[in-house]
Amino acid sequence: MHRYRFSAMASPCEIILTGDEQHCLAASEAAAAEVHRIEAKYSRYRDNSELSRINRQAGSATEIDDETYQLLHYASVAWQQSDGVFDISAGILRQAWDFTRQQIPDSRQLAPLLSRIGWGQAQLNQQQILMPAGMEIDLGGLGKEYAADKAAQVCREHGFRTGVVDLGGDLHVLGPKNEEPWQIGVRHPRKPDHAFAQLPVYQGGMASSGDYERYFEYQGRRFCHLLNPHTGMPVDHWASISVLAPSCLLAGTLSTIAMLKQAQGLSWLQQQGVHFLAIRPDLSHHLHNG
Asked: What's this model's pTM, rounded to 2 decimal places?
């Protein structure tokens, strides 16, 4: 078994393949290069990225390539299917929420930001995107999961049919290991170095969304980075939700939407027909086989 470790998208990453060492290395390096390409293209931290170019031209029609169109179209479908809670224009709420200073913004701070959110206002076709002036998009809720799927595709193009691409906990399983599923650990939402459970995965994507990545606690309540785009306030019903789906991108989107839907997240996920593990803040949980 060959393990190739690298860093990307502010996360530790690993590609696990079996076979000839040089063949595994060549595939892993090519897959990692694809992850770095996607990071460079869609990072909001890089002034020369495609995402930054689109944001700078908000208010004007901006030409886009086919890959960008596919991602933005996917975001539009997710926005529609989630009743607007999955919104790639909601990233600007980070201007009001500083999780290092541990301060809760008031309505005066949130109101001007909320007025700039609403992905449904953008006009998208295969050639261009037109966003309202002041709108800013962030593909942080899609990028890592999309990259995991693309890296897995590269591994398949190199002839691999079994293995795992792991980008900071967002995974794509190429296929079973000796006809047996991979046992994938689900992070414990209150013990970072422990697994809450092991889920068997034969093939496809697995992703988790939780209240433990960026948060602070105030007066006994946890305030996390998952923010409702309609209110600007954090979710608090679930500690984490992990989803198994045909792709990592779909798994990540479904887990995030379920978190944002709060109490309705469970019934909504059940309607999607996927396997999932939902963990409450008191660590009671619900395991569903779709």
From this structure: 0.96
